[in-house]
Amino acid sequence: MSPVFPTVREVLALDPVRHGAPRLVAGDAGLDRPVRWVHVTEVPDIAPLLGGGELVLTTGIGLPADDAGLRAFIGDLADVGVSGLVVELGRRYVSGVPRVMAAAAERRGLPLVELRRATPFVRITEAVHALIVDAQLTELRATEEIHQRFTELSVEGAGPGEVVRQAADLSGCPVVLENLSRQVLAYDPAGESAELLLDCWEQHSRRIRPAGRTAYDGDNGWLVTTVGARGQDWGRLLLRWPGGGDLAAGRRVFDPAEEGGAPVGVAVPPVVPPTRLTILVERAASTLALGRLIRCDAEGLERQIHRTLLTALLDHSLPVDEVALRARALGVLLERRHLVGVVVRHRADDPAGEGGPAPDQGHPGGPEAGPARLRDLAEAVGQALHEAKLTGLSSAIDDHAVGVLLALPEPAAEERSLAAFATALHRTRPDAPARADTPARPDGLVRPESLPRPGGSARPDGQARPGGPVRGDGPARSHGRTNGVARPAGGGLLVAAGSGVPSLREARRSLVEARQIADAARRDRRDLPVFRLPHVGLAGLLHLLRDEPRLQTFVERELGALLTHDAQYPREQLLGTLRAYLEQGRNKSAAAGAAHLSRPAFYERLARIRRVLDVDLDSVEACLSLHVALLALDAIRTHPASPR
């Protein structure tokens, strides 16, 4: 029942009730029960006509005269879930209600109130119903504010962090956004401890299992809704509302079959969050889903057109013939050309490079360092294309990478052109960090003209900068070069290329392949001028697909039951047992040794894994599927989750 309704305690404080000199006789533990309606009755068999949550008013003139009848009357009211019983004295009961009635109400935790002065019931009814209507109007106003706030966020293209912050601000409750693998993408503790909120989050999240797309898990106190768009779910938004536990606290239940029985449990009528909170999480989820579909960037008109065309090829948002036509209008001929997709990105996502400090409010770049850094990289890529005398479309394709669709005259020019592009790019954009005395751009990068002279890679305090020497014209410049192509050092640039294709209709495949190779190669420390598909193995493939909802769904389908079991029984950790078994090629003896378990204990754990997963661990196909799921789980867990 929604807390938009007043409680019994609040009703007793109303003036019409106070005029009747109320006295609580029994059931003080139920004073915080919500009152859905007020019902006046003078008949003993009223319970079947009630729906629960009513505050029953009576003078008692029609109640049973015998003790058994009074116990049954109280029991029927408690069973149907009424909020309380108010008896006006003077007509049937003069000095007070019968003791047997008070005892029965106390046993069932039902608030029983005497009105010691005559009071018109209609005034009580009007006052309570006015309170309910006023609360509902307040709820309506709050709902209107929610719609207005999230509409503004949608129009402004707010990021996930801002959407979650606004949801927490409007609700006053902690809010968490997670992906399908239970990784936290954004959160706001609403003034509570973030450490406590996120401690062992994955295990805690797996215990939250609402029944429906938007539902409240009363056992754990979380309101949950699924986040997704265009039929693709990619996360969950959770709002902690422990109202059920608060309302249920202290409500005692007595065994109705025993006179003077002891408490046997807690009587909690169905409790759900206010309607406005359900609307809030659903509107927030819609805003998050919409924001994921929107990309905002401040670029020049020509660069915007390049980006529009590249995006059209990736998303199939424009016919291929129209893309070719608009590209030709820009001076980029894509018909009858050998096309190669290329992606350029930094090995590290933070503007300072891998291991460098991330921008904050004290950093000169501030929150705009990332976009400025990406625009700088896009400019460098365009300059490298011009220097290498290559033509093609180039633009940022996501928050960290710049894509290029090279248009070559013939397939034989592919390797030579890629080498020339990589060389020109690293000459245009050296990937060493700036010196302390070198003027930096707002994104933490230096322009080529501001690079130090040979030998100037040290800071004034004599300490070397991370990432190796700054490349100049001397020996330092030749560092990290192979066959005339500059190599990325540490947190430098990374160039990845897809397979060449003969037509524009196949260009998307080459671009997607290049982006996947670039994502996977971030974990590869080899110094390669250009990364190609043969350099990426299964682990790399799973790494580059780590944010794909279908892969996360596969992991949940294969391992979800086992992960849930480990969350409930953390001492067992059957996932480690399964990992040892698969990594040892299903050799049970070797796996038992690797897991530091005796053979009987290891065999017993394998039997439990079989039961939990309902799988045949002697099946090569089943074990292969589980092993791939484990590798995918490692890729998901070892990379910071990011909404995109």
Which helices and strands appear, and what pairs or packs with what?
Elements: H1 8-12, H2 15-19, E1 22-26, E2 37-40, E3 54-58, H3 67-80, E4 84-88, H4 99-108, E5 112-115, H5 121-156, H6 160-171, E6 175-179, E7 184-188, H7 194-198, H8 201-207, E8 214-217, E9 222-229, E10 232-240, H9 243-248, E11 252-254, E12 263-266, H10 275-293, H11 301-315, H12 320-329, E13 338-346, H13 369-387, E14 392-396, E15 401-408, H14 414-428, H15 475-478, E16 481-482, E17 485-486, E18 493-497, H16 507-521, H17 538-544, H18 549-568, H19 574-583, H20 588-594, H21 599-613, H22 620-637
Parallel strand pairs: 2-3, 3-4, 4-5
Antiparallel strand pairs: 1-5, 6-7, 6-10, 8-9, 9-10, 11-12, 13-15, 13-18, 14-15, 16-17
Description:
It comes from Micromonospora reichwaldensis. This is PucR family transcriptional regulator ligand-binding domain-containing protein. The chain has 644 residues and is α+β, with helices and mostly antiparallel strands. Helices cover 43% and strands 14% of the residues. The longest helix has 36 residues, at 121-156. It is elongated.
Key descriptive features of the protein:
single chain; 644 residues; alpha+beta; 5-stranded mixed β-sheet; 5-stranded antiparallel β-sheet; 22 helices; 18 strands
Summarize this, please?
Helix content is 43%, strand content 14%. It is an alpha+beta fold.
